[in-house]
Design brief:
With 235 residues, this protein is an all-alpha fold. The chain has one domain (7-230): Phosphate transport system protein phou homolog 2, domain 2 (Methane Monooxygenase Hydroxylase, Chain G, domain 1), CATH 1.20.58. Helices cover 80% and strands 0% of the residues. The chain contains 8 helices and no strands. The longest helix is centred in the N-terminal third of the chain and has 34 residues, at 7-40.
Length: 235
C-alpha cells in the first residue's frame, strides 16, 4: 500500500496490521499448546489455553473498534477500504481458531483418563503440525504482501482434509477393536474435527487476504477432500 498524505492514517492502518499479527501469533500458540496438552494429558496447560481465549476475544474487539473508528474518521476508499474490512473478517476467523483451540483444551481431562495409543498420538501430532504451518503462514504472507503465497497456502488445505479422513478412520478402528476405547476416541474425533475446522478458517483468511492485496477473488469452489461422511467401518 502506498503512503498517505496524512501520516496518522498510515499509523492507524499499521496498528490494525500489528493487531492482526498479534492475533495470528496467539492463535498459533493456542493451537500448539492445546495439542501438547492433549498428547501429554497436561491439564494445567489446557487451562492456560482456555484462559488465553479471553485475551483473543479482547484483541478482536480492539481491532474491530479501531477499524470502525478508522472508517468513520478517514472514509477510506478502494484498497484502503478493502484492507480495513478484510482485517475485520480475518480477525473474526482468527478468533474462531482460538475458540476451536479452547474446545480441544476442554477435552484434555476426559481424554487423559485413558492412555492414548502411541500411533494415534503420532497421527494427531502430525495433523496438528500441518495445521500450525497454515496458521503461522497465513498472517505472515498477508503482512509481507505475498498474494501468490496465500494462493499456495489455501490449496494446501487439501492435505489437512486427507489427513483428517485418515485420523477419522483410525479412530473408528480403535473403537471397533475395543469398546473401552469409545469414550476417549469420541473426544479425539471432536479434537481432530476442530483441527480440520481450523484449516478451513485459515482458508477463509487466505481468501480475504488475497482479495485485500489484489482486488481479485480466488475461485470459490476449492474441492474438499474430507471423506468422513463416506467412511464406513471395516468388517
Amino acid at each position: 500500500m502506498g503512503k498517505h498524505t496524512v501520516t496518522s492514517f498510515d499509523e492507524d492502518l499499521g496498528h490494525i496490521d500489528r493487531l492482526l499479527r498479534d492475533m495470528g501469533d496467539l492463535a498459533a500458540a493456542m493451537v500448539s499448546a492445546s495439542i501438547q496438552a492433549l498428547i501429554n494429558s497436561d491439564n494445567a496447560l489446557a487451562q492456560r489455553v482456555i484462559s488465553d481465549d479471553a485475551v483473543m476475544d479482547a484483541r478482536q474487539r480492539e481491532l474491530d473498534d479501531r477499524a470502525i473508528t478508522l472508517i468513520a474518521k478517514r472514509q477510506p476508499m478502494a484498497q484502503d477500504l478493502r484492507a480495513v474490512v478484510g482485517a475485520i473478517r480475518m480477525a473474526g476467523d482468527l478468533e474462531r481458531i482460538g475458540d476451536l483451540a479452547k474446545n480441544i483444551a476442554k477435552r484434555v481431562n476426559a481424554v487423559g483418563e485413558s492412555a492414548m495409543p502411541r500411533s494415534l498420538a503420532h497421527s494427531i501430532e502430525t495433523m496438528s503440525a500441518m495445521v500450525l504451518d497454515q496458521v503461522n503462514g497465513v498472517v505472515d504472507k498477508y503482512v509481507s504482501r505475498e498474494p501468490e503465497g496465500l494462493k499456495t497456502l489455501r490449496a494446501a488445505d487439501e492435505k489437512i482434509d486427507v489427513k483428517y479422513t485418515a485420523v477419522f478412520r483410525e479412530l473408528l478402528t480403535y473403537m471397533m477393536e475395543d469398546p473401552r476405547n469409545i469414550t476417549a476416541c469420541t473426544h479425539l474425533l471432536f479434537c481432530a474435527k476442530n483441527l480440520e475446522r481450523i484449516g478451513d478458517h485459515v482458508t477463509n483468511i487466505a481468501e480475504n487476504a488475497y482479495y485485500v492485496l489484489t482486488g481479485q477473488q480466488l475461485p470459490p469452489n476449492r474441492p474438499k477432500l474430507d471423506e468422513t461422511s463416506l467412511a464406513t467401518p471395516a468388517v
